[in-house]
Design brief:
Layout: E1 3-7, H1 12-21, E2 28-32, E3 46-49, H2 56-65, E4 70-73, H3 80-96, E5 101-103, H4 124-136, E6 142-143, E7 145-147, E8 150-151, E9 171-172, E10 177-181, E11 189-192, H5 194-206, E12 214-216, E13 220-222, H6 224-240, E14 249-253, H7 255-259, H8 278-293, H9 305-308, H10 317-325
Parallel strand pairs: 1-2, 1-4, 2-3, 4-5, 5-6, 7-12, 8-11, 10-14
Antiparallel strand pairs: 9-10, 11-13
């Protein structure tokens, strides 16, 4: 039994992790949130804590009083305010005397890549790097950076069970449109369903083996053209009840344009502007496009949690799209 605290556990990936860890009542799970009530039902082994994030002494006492062993952060977006909260969590964990393991809010790919490969908006990468540097100042804490690539959930929206924000990157299956970075075949992209991410994270938490600095998770590794063709076939089944395929309206954004922050808007992006400003979202998607073309999202098959925990069988992309789009 592990006593686990999850900062940001009321939504998104954090909620998915909470739901995984509360299964079987094997662990005590503590959700760190500014909200005084939970927006969903939980089992008896899940507890809500309302920390004062800007008070380090209070955070230390909270972690100590609840005997937290493993502290995870799923806080987002990486604004300076959220970043300061994560730094405070690291420092409080180090001083608590009970926390032995820490997971920073990285959840994607290695943010140490240079701007030629991953030109994320300022100050994203700087804040991620600073959090990693802060962890290295506290050798008493064991930590790992979970890298599951891009979340597969987005390609199943709105049908897939998921707590992630409804975003459909590059291949807009509902609208049968795609704006692919590069030619769509330069490199493979690691994609993992968040429920599978949570299953691997649980295995890592339950393992007593030393944590590596990076923990790579690969649900599937495919090119964006493979995603496109699978989606076209799924839409064909939905619309025509045949296997012949429906051609999407496809454009390609060059690497030069993407590096300049220029990206073709697809219909799926428009509703998200209510949550994320248009300029920021398109800049972020252009950066992810660069990363996909240059191979940042190709995480390989070696030295992954898949190899370590072979009993976890993540869903593959073709099966995923067929499951959530065929017949819809």
């Amino acid at each position: 039994m592990v006593r686990i605290a999850i900062a940001g556990g009321t939504g998104g990936l954090g909620r998915t992790l909470v739901e995984e860890f509360m299964q079987g009542n094997e662990h005590e799970v503590f959700i760190l949130s500014r909200k005084s009530t939970l927006p969903f039902e939980v089992s008896k082994n899940v507890h809500l804590l309302t920390p004062t994030y800007d008070n380090l002494d209070s955070l230390v006492e909270l972690l100590k009083a609840n005997e937290i062993h493993t502290l995870m952060s799923t806080l987002s977006p990486p604004t300076p305010e959220v970043h300061q909260i994560e730094l405070n969590l690291i420092r409080a964990a180090s001083q608590s005397g009970t926390v032995k393991r820490f997971v920073p809010s990285e959840w994607g790919v290695d943010f140490s890549h240079d701007d030629e490969h991953l030109p994320l908006p300022v100050p994203w990468k700087a804040l991620k790097r600073e959090a990693r540097a802060e962890l290295q100042k506290h050798p008493i804490l064991e930590y790992t950076l979970f890298h599951p690539g891009f979340f597969m959930d987005y390609f199943g929206m709105p049908h897939v069970p998921s707590h992630m924000l409804a975003d459909v990157p590059f291949v807009d299956i509902p609208a049968a449109k795609a704006a692919l970075p590069g030619n769509g075949d330069e490199n493979k992209v690691a994609l993992t369903y968040t429920k599978d991410v949570a299953r691997f994270v649980r295995k890592a938490v339950e393992s007593e083996d030393p944590w590596p600095e990076k923990s790579v998770i690969v649900g599937d590794s495919v090119t964006l053209n493979e995603v496109l063709h699978t989606a076209e076939k799924a839409r064909a089944i939905r619309i025509t009840k045949t296997e012949t395929g429906v051609k999407f309206d496809v454009v390609h954004d060059s690497l030069e344009d993407l590096r300049a922050g220029k990206i073709t808007e697809i219909p799926a992006y428009i509703p998200i502007y209510e949550v994320i400003p248009k300029e920021w979202l398109l800049e972020m998607m252009a950066a992810f496009g660069v990363a996909m073309v240059t191979g940042v999202f190709d995480l390989g098959d070696d030295d992954t949690l898949n190899e370590k925990f072979t009993d976890v069988k993540p869903i593959k992309m073709a099966e995923f799209i067929k499951k959530y789009w065929a017949g819809k």
